[in-house]
Amino acid sequence: MIYQINSIRAIACLAVVIVHITAVFYFENKYFSKDIFEYINQIARFGTPIFCIITGFLFSNYFFNNFNINNFFKSRFEKILIPYLLWSLFYLALVYFFLRQNFPENILYSIIFGKSFYHLYFISIILQFCILFPILRKIKFKNDIITVFTFFIINLLCLIFFKESDFFILSESSFLGFWIFYFYFGLYFNKIIHFLQKLNLKLVISTLFIILLIMCLEIYLSEQIFGSRRVLNLFIVPPIFVILFWIFSKKQSKALNFIGYFSMGIYLIHPIVILILKRIIGIDLIHEKPLFFSIILLIFTLIITICLILIIVKFPFSKYLGEFKHEVRQFEKSYDNQQAEQISLMV
């Protein structure tokens, strides 16, 4: 299952990067200069929910089995909290010194709820899930479907009543209530994995076509731009995850597997790379040839970000910035295993 999850992680990572690249064409009066970029931007909004499902899936062993709570929190503190605080401070400094914008009025509030920069809210969501995890793992019904459905309803109600509210933290993008169902779907995915045996290519293509059609209709009929916090995602993201898992169970992609190993590093670093590339190319030139430069931005963002990760891991302080060394070691281990398999086939 490691390969499937790694490849899905790569897809989610690419979706997030694509959202942020196409946002270049989103103006202050809140419209896209080219319709195609509006569709691409909105369709790619499944990235963050997919990351939540993957997190739930990776936590499932803790969820259904006994574990040392002290070790759990110590690990989360070292692997998530410290890197999150450092990256939050880094991006606050970036906003002030590079973008020439003022510091937020309440810096502590901005850091807690992932408002230091536009992508950090996801890490805040993960931290909330980790903090509440010992409590959440006790909320189980005898029927697994009822448990997952209960959190689907909770998530749905949060989106309906709190998303557009001004009720303090409940309207923040990082509020766990907007994402809790995806975590639970991931936690219980192993329970429904046998369902994959019933899938076939015809059903997969039909389902993807219907999902794409629904998303395009929503974009066409709606006069507003949606984020990842939308009701439709509750219905379409789980099938997308299941289909991706089925696809990568049948077929492997070395490119996606490669990106998957560096996904968290890419997630944390890519905004500054996009920002610098925009300054180098020039926003006017980008708007003259939007499709060409969108592809250029995507390719170079991935290449530069991965190169930066490989440079960062050479320094001792890298352990405080995230699991970059772990990502590189996992990739090297996977590469060595592939080489060993190829040699064994040749002998």
UniProtKB/TrEMBL annotation:
Keyword annotations: Acyltransferase, Cell membrane, Membrane, Transferase, Transmembrane, Transmembrane helix
Pfam families: Acyl_transf_3 (PF01757)
Biological-process GO terms, alphabetical: enterobacterial common antigen biosynthetic process
UniProt main location, coarse: membrane
Sequence intervals crossing the membrane: 7-27, 39-59, 80-98, 118-136, 145-162, 168-189, 201-220, 232-248, 255-277, 292-313
UniProt GO MF annotations: O-acetyltransferase activity
Acyltransferase domain mapped to chain residues: 3-308
GO cellular component, one term: plasma membrane
Alphabetical list of InterPro entries matching this protein: Acyl_transf_3_dom
Keyword presence, 4Fe-4S: no
Membrane topology: Multi-pass membrane protein
Entry's localization field: Cell membrane
Family note: Belongs to the acyltransferase 3 family.
Protein name: Acyltransferase
